[in-house]
Structures are given as C-alpha cells and as structure tokens.
Amino acid sequence: MSFTPITTQEDFDKAIKDRLDREKKTITDEVTKKYAGTEEWQEQQKKLNDQLGEQTKAIEEAAEASKKNEATITELTDKVKKYEIASVKARIANEVGLQYQLASRLSGEDEEAIKKDAESLVKLMGNEKGTPPPLAHPETEPTEKGSKNAALKGMLQNMKGEE
Q: Where do the segments described as Disordered lie (predicted)?
C-alpha cells in the first residue's frame, strides 16, 4: 500500500470517517466482549433501547406537531392574503370613484390588474371619478311612488318632445 496525498476535503473526510468507524468498531467489540454475559450489560442495553424508543416517539410527535403548525400557517396566510386583496380592491374602488358595493366584483392578481379592471368598469358604467351616479330626474320620473298620473304625464311629455 503506497502513500497517496490527500488533496480534497472529500478525500480527507472519507479517510477520517473510515478511521473513526474502525475505532468505534474496536471499542464496541471490546465492550461487548467484556460485558456480554453479565446482567449489568443486559440492563444497560434495555435502558438504552427504552431511551431510544422514547426519543423516537418524541421525534414522531414533534414531526406531527410541525405538520399541524405548517397547515395552520398555510391557512392563516391564505386568510391574510384574502383580506389584503379585499382591502386593495376597496381602496382602488374608492380611488377611481367606483361604488363600494362593486369593489368585490373587481378581479386581478395584483394591484395593477385590479386597478385596470376598476377603471374599465367605471368606463362601462359611465361614471367618472368625482361624479356621483345620477339620481331620479324630476321631469322624467314620478315624484310620488305609485302615482299613475305622474307616470302618464311624464310619458306624454316625452311623446310630445317637451322637456
């Protein structure tokens, strides 16, 4: 066996690992030979096995709790995202002069897309920013609810072309 210089970290790690594995095996073999037949050895083995079982159980419980926490975090993150989007929609609706009730109808994944949708909806409705929606016109709509005479009068005026 000739000497080969170690030039990389991987070669060094492998050489050290091999040496440590040999030393661990030697120590384990010596301890096993010394205490193999005694009750003390068997009790130590049983204690170690019990501890290993408890640690395994604790690790499994921690992993399960971690999964539950991740699910809760995902759920809460989704809720926060929905609230943020609703807030952005309401703010944009207010900025462009859209009625608050229509804010939930806006669509888009980001603020820019939502703003474009709001502006196109305002154009469709013919409601420019700052101009409130038209109220009932006194000449064309009856002033009293259910007044047949007022409705007929308005219709007659429209037919004559009177304003």
A: 36-55, 125-163
Question: How far is 113 from 36, CA to CA, in rounded Å?
Answer: 75
User: Which residue carries 């290993």 as its tokens?
Assistant: 52
pTM for the model stands at 0.43
What span, in angstroms and rounded, lies between the C-alpha atoms of 29 and 45?
Answer: 15
Does the pLDDT value for residue 151 go beyond 80?
no
- Distance separating alpha carbons of residues 34 and 29, to the nearest angstrom: 9
State the greatest distance between any 2 C-alpha atoms of the chain, in Å, as a whole number: 121
Distance CA 108, CA 115 (A): 8
pLDDT at residue 156 in the model: 81
Cα→Cα distances 13→35, 76, 89, 130, Å: 32, 44, 58, 73
Distance CA 40, CA 135 (A): 96
Q: Which of 96, 147, 143 is nearest to 117 (CA)?
A: 96
Q: Is the pLDDT of residue 142 over 70?
A: no
Q: Where are the alpha helices (DSSP H) in the chain?
A: 9-35, 39-96, 111-125, 148-160
